[in-house]
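Data availability excerpt. The first of two example chains:
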Amino acid sequence: MEGGTPTNGYDLPGVGWVSYWHSNGAAIHSTYWHNDYGRPRSHGCLNCSPEAAKWLFRWTTPAVAYDPGNIEVTWPGGTRVGIEGNPQPLASDSSS
């Protein structure tokens, strides 16, 4: 999983079960670098345990082959997943 800008980017190999939900690169995905779920720890992504991210990825449509690749679906066309709540911004966020 990679993204961001040339001066403020990221490259995290091995992030599994990624479901992008916003054009800015925000996604629901598994997280192997922490297990502190339910607290803001990302700049837009929803971190899940590998088991939860896998369940959500496989539950949503369209069904995606397990082969690596870029699958893009525009709405309408896939399962709409609502994300509720309004977590406090990270302390490092100066835009809020």
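And the second chain:
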Amino acid sequence: MAKTQKKLLRLANKAKLHSFRNKPVYMYGFQVPRNHIEAMELDGMNGNSMWRDAEITELNQIDEYKSFIDKGVGFNPGSDFKKIQVHMVYAVKHDGRHKARLVARGHLTETPIDSVY
């Protein structure tokens, strides 16, 4: 009985966490998407393109600042480079502006010695 009850409680807590992680997030009265697909769905439901415009603005700024160098599809970076995944993070500012930021999963690489102080 104790083993079954323990397992039941663990499953119930897991279900609570799952529903907590998947519930909609709101900032200043606007629903904030968790990924690109949800952002496009929210734009369609709201009848506007606020999230899409925020993504385009972010990508244009990255191009404007020349943050990355495009080496082409067939480029082989070698063994000293590591592929890092990127994704969009969304937020709403207090004045209602929709912001999208392209972030990298920096925990996938080792921290260089010269960037630590």
